[in-house]
Amino acid sequence: MRKSTLFFMSIAVQSVLLLGAFTHAAYQRGRDASILGETVALVKRLDLTDLCLFTEARYTRHPTQADLHSPFQDHPMSLEHFPSGSLLAPRKGIGYR
Amino acid sequence: MGNWFERQRNIIDFTLSSLVRRKGKNLALLLVYTLLVFLLASVMFFTHALRKEASLVLQGAPEMVVQRMAAGRHELVPRRYLGMIKGIKGVSGARGRLWGYYFDPVMSANYTMVVPEDHPLGAGSISIGQGISRSRLARVGDFIPFRRYDGTPMVLTVREVLTTGSELVSSDLILVSEGDFRKLFGMAPDLYTDIVLSVRNAKEVATAAQKVQKLLPDTRPIMKSEILRTYDTIFDWRSGIIVVILSSAVLAFIIFAWDKASGLSAEERKEIGILKAIGWETSDVLLMKFWEGAAVSLSSFLAGVLFAYIHVFFTPVMLFEPVLKGWSTLYPSFKLVPFISPYQVAMLFFLTVVPYTVATIVPSWRAATIDPDSVMRS
Q1: What is the pLDDT averaged over residues A34-54?
Q2: Which of B172, B230, B324 sits opposite A64 (nearest CB)?
Q3: pTM of the model
Q4: How far apart are CA B339 and CA B319, in angstroms?
């Protein structure tokens, strides 16, 4: 078999797989819609405000509810203590409040 | 048309044979390139899916949360504040929220205790999130001991484990009755953690927030739009560790492309010289180099994107998990909904494939335009 045929076949297979990924994504979104709906209902019922991503500190567990001083609670120039603090950017416009 | 296609195929055949002749170097190139695309695509898919899911899920968040502040810290809100807020024109409803953190010394984990407005299970019973159930091996009917504010024990029975699907918001939650919550933390009956309120007209939320702050200057209103914006910025590509990962990947790619663009190896130059000497046109050499760049970059791009898709949406995001976990003992084992768009893939394509292909053509054009005799002799 010619090398160019092999090349085109490999690109075609990968492209089909990429299309398959898009199809899978669309199908999965449809399947997960009811689960997402249930989660929204739970958020509404419990009046939740944050995602449970980082449970190590209160300002990383509830970044939207944290007071503006909490990451520097030890002293104003203290270094960030928790690893996930380096993942969280401060909110936009935080300097204006 | 047939001739044109056959000519391209012949050039591709020759290009691939030439690549195979230097297979060690080219395989390494393919591997590094695929890894780079994989990393970039993983970050892009993960952050986009998380941001999208947060924006959908948090649509259910309260329209406004009012916190009381004292000396720059969050303070409990007295019941009379609730009455004052309910009296504000435009506010359609308000309720005191009770929630807090409980540190479990056995697991060294922080739990979020929440009192639902309608706790169906009654006193002495709790609902727990999947994360707690997993780490404490607690099932329905089990007892979990807690330590009250005065050091005395308090045992609560697990009556429900929250669904796996909601783990992204509920992994560390413990739903408890108001009475048990107040007993556990020693909170007076006229105090709340904060107040949530709804506004009759959605357009007047900002006005209502101003009214709350004017009426109660020691409070801080947080609007739903601010909550949504926070999650939009948290996983923004310009923030935190993401910019570190992206910038190192982009820098690596620049070095990699620069190395390619800065010149060809002596062997490659000699090959071009021979091709020109046996009658290849400059355009043929450029076409060959175009196909060489396209073969490497297209294969790496497609493989990198596919591996990234599998990594983010089929595995528990193994590469980012240790970074995301930090020092947390409890971490949700969530499966992201695959929110991907052709725009993301197109952006990745223009960031990786186009610069690489261009970078391989430029030095070849320089080599192809000089005299074959001098190229072969050098």
Answers
A1: 91
A2: B230
A3: 0.84
A4: 19
